[in-house]
Amino acid sequence: MSISVVKAQQVNVAKAFASAAKQTDVLIKNVDSARKIKSNLVSPRTVENGQFKMVTSKDWTSGFFPAELWYFYEYTRDKKWLALAQKYTEDIKAEQFNKGTHDLGFMIYCPFGNGYRLTGDPAYKAVIIQAAKSLSARFNAKAGVIKSWDHNGDKWKYPVIIDNMMNLELLFETTRLTGDSSFYKIAVTHANTTLKNHFRPDFSSYHVIDYDTLTGKVLQKVTAQGYANESAWARGQAWALYGYTMCYRETKNKAYLAQADGVASFILNNKITPADGIPYWDYNDPKIPETSRDASAAAITASALYELAKYSTSSKKYKAAADKIINSLSTKYTAKTGANYGFILMHSTGHRPAKSEIDVPINYADYYYLEALLRSKKIRVSG
Ligand code: GLY
Hints:
Elements: H1 13-37, E1 43-48, E2 51-55, H2 64-76, H3 79-90, H4 104-119, H5 122-136, E3 139-140, E4 145-146, E5 159-161, H6 168-178, H7 182-197, E6 208-211, E7 218-222, H8 234-251, H9 254-269, H10 295-311, H11 315-332, E8 348-351, E9 356-360, H12 363-378
Antiparallel strand pairs: 1-2, 3-4, 5-6, 6-7, 8-9
Helix pairs in contact: 1-12, 2-3, 2-4, 2-12, 4-5, 4-6, 5-6, 6-7, 8-9, 8-10, 10-11, 10-12, 11-12
The structure holds glycine.
């Protein structure tokens, strides 16, 4: 069943935000209780084997929780959410100096970028700029990409994952904030190299591309979190869609728009996804339909489609598909108030090959769900 639709039911943003806010009140209570026991655990990540799981600021998902609080503040303009967002954002600050990961876009830009956009606080601006410097230190000019991971050195030399497209937004913003074009140039070079090497002819994306930094050549095209090297891992497709949509916004390069349109067609025309629009965790898992969905991939996709609808000639189709996904998430994938340890959405898949986070709530699903709700409120489409 393809999820291309002409018109979907209008999203009830007010209702969805109101119930998400009640859940998040519960989540905050759980966070504060957990922190009394271990204060270095700053952010709620998931629930696994019935256990509420918190992470330190070093975890790649640490920024999503405070960033969600910024979205509640944006929607309500209630000072309660402002104070909460400010408080929990502070806990991630140390990561601006972290040169051991590519994930600084997620960790720093989601909370501090939203915080700066909504308050103009110069302290947040300084953190964003430092984080962009740290991230840029991972760029290799010969390969033309930012290195994603330092782990598993026996498996790959210089791995770059499709997810890394998301971190480029931090670099684009830093050029705007500083006037220093070097960040912009790194982002564009990374996006161009990824466009050349990460995609198959049907616009589906590989997960990991390994580079030789002496020659710049591709050494291998493999997966880490997907079903197989040649499969299409659902969240990877969502990162690709969001990443090239954002790169088009930042550069107006038509090649990025064409890429985003291509990835959207892979996602929306795929007959594997059920009628509710929430994909299985990997489009090629042979166990489908007896396998897990990934609500996080759906939320990221919906948010990206609302933005792509502003730029593409397929505006109406994209908005309708995003509405359909968000209607499904807000009716069938949300937890009852008080359940799910306060996480908003259920049924995401983090890392199935590692038997980790299968059919669970995950903080980034909630973050992109709230972002999609905010975007759905603003969007006007014509085409
Ligand atoms: N960026 C890691 C993931 O999507 O699971």
